[in-house]
Backbone:
């Protein structure tokens, strides 16, 4: 079942990947950089806007808030959405194999 919100943005996808281990904002930016092999650099404005949206959609939750720093984790719904998006992307790659075959 695909994610109800339609195809994910790149930011959403990498945030969910990075949240397979609970993280707070600064750690999360570093985890996104690491999980994307340095290809995705996410600034605080983008990160916190997407985190807010994903909380509302119950894809992530706050697991700790000490007043200074919030720690986020992926929810079960978020994990399902991440797997669905991965499968969608894999299908797109399969669909594009004809490009490689034409070389």
Residues:
């Amino acid at each position: 079942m695909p994610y109800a919100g339609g195809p994910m943005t790149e930011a959403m996808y990498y945030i969910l990947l990075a949240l397979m281990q609970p993280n707070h904002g600064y750690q999360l930016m570093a985890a996104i950089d690491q999980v994307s092999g340095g290809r995705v650099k996410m600034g605080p404005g983008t990160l916190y806007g997407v985190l807010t949206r994903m909380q509302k959609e119950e894809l992530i939750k706050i697991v700790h808030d000490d007043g200074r720093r919030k720690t986020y984790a992926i929810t079960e719904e978020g994990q399902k959405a991440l797997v669905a998006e991965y499968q969608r992307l894999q299908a797109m790659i399969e669909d594009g194999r004809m490009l490689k075959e034409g070389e």
Remarks:
- Residues 87 and 93 are 10 Å apart (CA to CA).
